[in-house]
Amino acid sequence: MTSQLFFLVGDSPSTARPVPVNVEGKFDDLRRAVALVLHVAVPQGLSFHKTEADTDKLESVQDVWSAAGPVAVRVDGLAVQDPQGPPGLPVVGSFYEIFPDHLGNHYRLFRKYGHVIKTVNMGKTNYLSDSPEVALVALSESAYFTKKISENHPLWGIKDNTAIFIGDTETENWRLAHKFIPPSMGPKAVRHYTPLMQECVRSSFPIFDELDSRGEAWNVYQFMVKLASQTIGKFAFGKNLGHFDSVEAPAHPLITNIVNMLSLNKKVTARGEWYRSLPWGDSAKLKAVQKTVYAQMKEAVDDAPSSGIANLPFGEAATRASCVADYLVNAVDETGSRFPEGLVLSNMIVITGAGYTTTSALMSWLVYCIVTYPDCQDKLLQELIDYGISPSTQWTPELAHGLPYMDKFVKETQRLHNASFQPGRTTKTEVILPGGYRLPANATVIPALYAVHTNPEHWHDPFRFDPERWDTNEVKNDRHRAAYIPFATGARGCIGFNFALLEVKVLLSELVYRYKFAREGLEAVEYDPEFQLIRPLNFIVSKMTWTPSTTGSRPVAVLGAGVLGRRIACCFVSGGYNVHIRDPSAEARRAAVQYIDENKEAYTKHLPATTLTKDHKFGSYVASELIDTAVKEAWLVIEAVPEKIELKIDTMAELDHKAPADCIFGSNSSSFKSRFMLDKVTSPERRKRICNVHFTMPPKIRTVELMTDGETEPGVFPFLTEVLERCGMLPATAQKESTGFIFNRLWAAVKREIMFILAEEVSTPAEIDKLWRHMFQAEIAPCRLMDQIGLDTVAFIEDNYIQERHLNGAQTVDFLRANYLAKGKLGLKSDKGGLYPSASAIPSPPLTIVGERTRANSPDHSQDHKEEPALYFLDVGFGGNCKSFSDVSTNGKILRRDPSTGLISTIVSSQPAPDGIDILGDRIFWTNMGRDVNARDGSVMSSKLDGSDIQTLIPEGLVTTPKQMVAVASQKKLYFCDREGMGLHRVSLDGKEHEVLIQRTSEARDLTKWCVGITVDVHNKKVYWTQKGASKSNQGRIFRAGMEIPPGQTAETRSDIELVFGDLPEPIDLEIEQETGMLYWTDRGEHPRGSSLNRGFVDGKKEEIEVLARHFHEPIGLKLDAERRQVFVTDLGGSVYSVDMDNGAKTVLHSDDGCYTGIATVSS
């Protein structure tokens, strides 16, 4: 036998290791030998290649042996790699990337970084996977993996090596526990306890009946905790916990303390070892509650009833014991030895706690699924009837497990809503996982069950709840065996799964047979991110006649991402509903998401107090190209597709096939009754959930008109009315079908009469508008509005009325077409004008504010009018809004002014004196001067436009008082001045490559060297900056130099610095207009030259300085908007201005008690 050298692709060939090769041996034996040497967990995934770049495989042992070594080894065809993950923040690491929605965020991170990811939270490093292949390897006790609960493990806070679930595998205690405890929960023992399950659930009926008679809704999880723990109390220690003595009966103290223990453990372990070691707070509470639980459990075990099974072999004892405590105290093994007394309490706590917490959460999600997913409740009930279930039925395991739809329903619930989510294992040595991921020794790896169960590579349409998938060949025979592991797998899999499955099937069957459950309220169901298991917090049910769609985390789907579609989406997002936008245009999708980013805060102005509570949260929102993705879990779909009836008919038909059965379809059509869209929708139940939902133009006009399709279930309208009012809309319901709904009939009559007046030559558009404005004291005039809508759209809509009412169109649409449309006069969209000549047409948004859209081929994508930009500006924190001087250093904020409403919202708060700001793409960059201007405690920060994902680019200790900042997109660089640091700095967008470009002096008291404002002339490769001098001293100057330090020189010695302007009052921030070479700057110096906005050419065209605007209150920030010929200015007096670049006219956009510095813009 000879040897060959092998190395893993991804590693250097120099790492190759020798492996004996038996030329006569089998290929799989060679794989196993190489895997053993290279620490590869699954040998079958290995392939051999001549070189690391070679993709052709060596297919035989002879090929491998004869290859010129070293032989390159791939794992599953891939190079080995270290798992990647979010970069994290100082101290907290990935905490805010993951919490509070750890399920959703882990799923997102798997899509971004791969099937194994690395996270570091509060100093704890974990590796998580959504791969069934990895899960199978990790959960198998082997040479590479075991359950060893280290400080990185999720159970670290409650580790106890005397207990089966919360202790290490490789201990004698675990061996004994694993020997004695499983028989007490095996199939024979579970049969023994089946009557107990039935007894417990039926004891709850009087309580649920009383709640129903009161008409009261109830929190599902709270009552499922009572029900599951009532069952486990009888099972574990033979005690009636009294949970259903009355409606108000409290949970037993042992139960509440176990819940508290698990919740505290989650909090403590999620926040790091430093938090666990604190002698107070949650850590101290955890220790105290653990002590209490042990004392209470000792009392329960001591009081447990005995069934006379002393010294019976544990197989027989398990089927005769009164409870598990009775069994553990009295049963013996084959040697006659009992379970050690010292292990009884800890294992009883695990059995009790794990038993009822998992079952209560699972029961809650089962109830959630029957009220969320269409027809499930009815199918379950029908199956019970078909199998002859009645109030006198005595349940057996065979009967419960013999209900096929129940079994599929439970499996699908556990797949999508499994209570357990992160069983942890520890690597014994370095190991290469499937996919080529390398883990170090002593690493904690967690198969993320939720992500495994929804891995799109293993599950078709993974987020669709479909119990019938369990009958398909794909799931029954073809799926990976670890693609569904609700109870984990391997030697440390859940030993109580037999009991749990039978328990939930018996409990759910009894409840479904007796009750019809329905969701109560519209609040999205949230899970508890700070609990050891996945449990719903706010899931409320009751008994209702009409069962509305369940909302929860399901989205509202909006079909169309144009001007109106994005506004509809923003309404729901601001009201707290998740939204999924669908549009085939990538640009429309991008613009829609950006619109919601920038305007969702403004929409909250109209929310009712019942919605806008202190705990109010925005809904999530995404946009996608495919309709399947958008509607697959939607509870409401609003179609805003073009006004073509054939298209709307096809859209409704497609939705009928792809949306959930309980989903409501709303047409935003302003022209067609929804009944005309139902030609291909045949189901009577579906037609009951279709109606018109016609938005106007929020947020300015918030009316929404609802109208039946002729078959709509009446309960839909109060339900939607409540939803819309929650979102700040003003809904009105037409009592019967009506073309034009309510308001548009009035508006259609006005338009019709205008056409008559014009056709009969009675008056002119200008005269009509003049009378209208005066009579109704209105800003909006009808002829102007018809031009804004588009005369082709006016004619198109009137055609519908003519056809329906058999009207004569000679003096209306016929006149309009002959005299306007045929001549190309369409209104504002045409350079030939409309009712008004083109030259006098007033610029305004291209869409109507009364609900009629332009007849473009896409719903509302017209973007001819450029809206004002959103303003992002800084409150340095020194203003009158700071109530205490001690708060000044943390009172800084980033504010946003909404361009359409003028509302001001806080994006980021608690900043130490922010001064400079710029925006690039979807990120804000800003400087903080820090708490002490004489200390190097300044910083440079970044965040997303909504204030999330805050990152520190330059931490404290490197700069003193960073001031104005400018982002240069072409270089991916930030430039800023350091005032007391007396220099100009440059840094990459990610905080790397920080360099000093100019250093004026090291004497901080020389105020003439203080560098404040900065701008970059990219075209001429120059940087300009201000040195303000002493306050009000007229010593201010503006300099320039090259963007790069000349060769052979330093930041201190560079010789290319030029004086541009001198003897200025006190120049602050500046910006250059690249196209003209005009430099603009603010000056906070003494009047009359100071407190001004100034400009001057820097290329020698003119030498004089022009004061463009005066009489500010110490202006600081400025931002050019050359496209709209305006300059935005902020001042320390708390005002934001717009200054006309042509005439210097100054407009106050906002004023309050703030103290404003830098400003930036984002165009809509």
Automatic annotation (TrEMBL):
Top-level taxon in the UniProt lineage: Eukaryota
One Pfam entry name: 3HCDH
Cofactor dependence: heme
One GO term (biological process): fatty acid metabolic process
A GO term, aspect molecular function: NAD+ binding
Transmembrane residue ranges: none
UniProt similarity note: Belongs to the cytochrome P450 family.
Protein name as annotated: Cytochrome P450
